[in-house]
Amino acid sequence: MSRRSVLAGTTAGIVIAAGVGGGVLWKGHLDDQKATNAATAAATTFAKAWSSGHLDRAKYAGTTPAAAAANFKTTTAALGAGPVTAKATDVVRRGSMATADIKVAWTMSGGQKFSWTDPINLVKHTSGWSIQVPDRSLWHPKLAKNDAFVVTTDSGNRGAITGSGGADIMANQTVYDVVINPVTATTASVQQLQQITSVTGLVGELTAAQRSHSQATIPVITYRAADYDARKSALDALAGVLTQKRQQPLAQTRTFGQPILGSVGPVTAQMIKQDPKYYHAGMYVGISGLQAQYEKTLAPKPGFTIAGKSHPSDPLFTKAAQNGTTVQTTLDPTIQAAAEKAVGTLKGQASALVAINIKTGGVLAVANGPSYGMERAITGQFAPGSTLKMATAYTWLSKGHSPSEKVNCPVEVSGGGQLIRNFEGESFPNPPFSKDFAVSCNTAFVNASKDLDDSDLTNGAKALGIGANWAKQLGYTGAYDGSIPVAKDATEKAVSAFGQGRTQVSPLALAVAASSLARGSYIPPALVTSPKQPGSRTPKPLNAEVDAQMKQLMRLPVTDPNGTATIMQNTPGGPIFAKTGTAEFIDNGQDASHAWLAGWQGNIAFCALVVKVPSGQGGGTVAAPVVKDFFTTLANES
């Protein structure tokens, strides 16, 4: 054999040997990777079981899946229903043992997240890899075995509603929520509770809760501190009746600013159904008015502290509460109180009174009667009657006419074929237009309207702010700025001249018109100034010559011996400029009217409405006394 052959054979033998060894090494590598993959799969399954809440879907060493799931439920009960995300990371295997980190993010009530890393051990058995149950809690590295999370919440304070100059309108005060614990309450104790609180139906709610084995408390009523103190002893004596103290924005009285300000109360099932991502059981939220409209501005973002039950003073996580944001309005508490007192003289009659700061256009007061009735001062839609003659007169004078021009005021006149009469059957032979305005002669305004085009009144009213599209920038949902449609025919043009037909306004819309005349320019009214509202509030000047004439006309209903607002003479606080209105309609076969008075005194423009007064009564006899009471109260407080 040659040397070359020997070397070749040796080399071949070495290659063969290396090949056999490489196969052994590669197989070992594959086995290791397979084992690591299996451990990783077990950790991943465990993490997915966290996320889904089905902890019985993982394998455990040292307990059963059912027991692990039960322990998980007990340990995490205080954290709520989630959602929860868990992810297995950093899996390291050493032989038949492995470690991994479970990255957990638990979404708490209100959307805040409690996140932590839970290190786990895994062990391999003949049946595969399992999660090793440690001596501590399996669910958090700082919890003891069989420990549980404890959550202490800090709800934070709801934002206040402030008025002009930052004055308190609804500021946080202490309130007491009365609730029923269905587990410990009795029928007898709840019957007594109904008598103390005057809340009915509570026995039925208790019965339903006990039949369903519900442990959720049943809300009953929320008391101001003074009201609660008067009932505290009686409530404390009732089995299963609990009181919970908290802070809530309150107005100066229960009726102050209702219904525009609104109220705060327990979230309803309907609200949760409509927006389950925001609302949840147990929340106290805005129920109506500005409180509901600006709920997400006013509402605080709750904070919480999470600790272990075994070490409650050693927090695992803390999230500070964020107080709600203030909603700023232009309301003046003194003027609002005077307006509410004034409509209160009507003894529950449906009514409204609005006041506006003439210089700024800010709404100073919005009073509705009765106080717990519907909101009509801003959102109401009513025929304005003769108060619209402010716009008709402005429009007519803008066409080149004069207040001294003669416009006949007969008892009746034909308007496009429809016979139109004056409210009280009055007539004045060929008086100047200024007299027609003072006595609010319908037939004279029908005669004057014949010189107007079909769209003139629409445009004239808009120049004063009626139908001027300011509703969306006021800051109050449902605000109505009025509608004076273009006349379809001569009859509609005639009846629109004195505020009937299809003409519609809110009390605020008429107050805006009055403030425009007083100011000499139109400015969109403002109610909510923060959050900032859309749109420009740049003044739009009126026809200066015509506006000066209108200021003179607006005094005449008060000063003229035959004027419709003579009751306003000698009103404390200075001269009153006013226009009355009586919008007639048929109610269940009976003649009825809405009574109006709009105008201004000093820097305050106003509009008062009394709804559905008997036939024969009108703005000068029903609405005017309300306004006089309003300014008398303000004068006495100045």
Automatic annotation (TrEMBL):
User: What keywords are assigned to this protein?
Assistant: Membrane
Q: What is the protein name stated in its UniProt record? A: Penicillin-binding protein
Q: Where is the NTF2-like N-terminal transpeptidase domain?
A: 39-147
Q: Name the Gene3D superfamilies on file.
A: DD-peptidase/beta-lactamase superfamily (3.40.710.10), Penicillin-binding protein 2a (Domain 2) (3.90.1310.10), Penicillin-binding protein 2a, domain 3 (3.30.1390.30)
**Which species is this record about?**
Leekyejoonella antrihumi
Q: Which Pfam families match?
A: MecA_N (PF05223), PBP_dimer (PF03717), Transpeptidase (PF00905)
Q: Carries keyword Membrane? A: yes
Please give the family membership noted in the entry.
Belongs to the transpeptidase family.
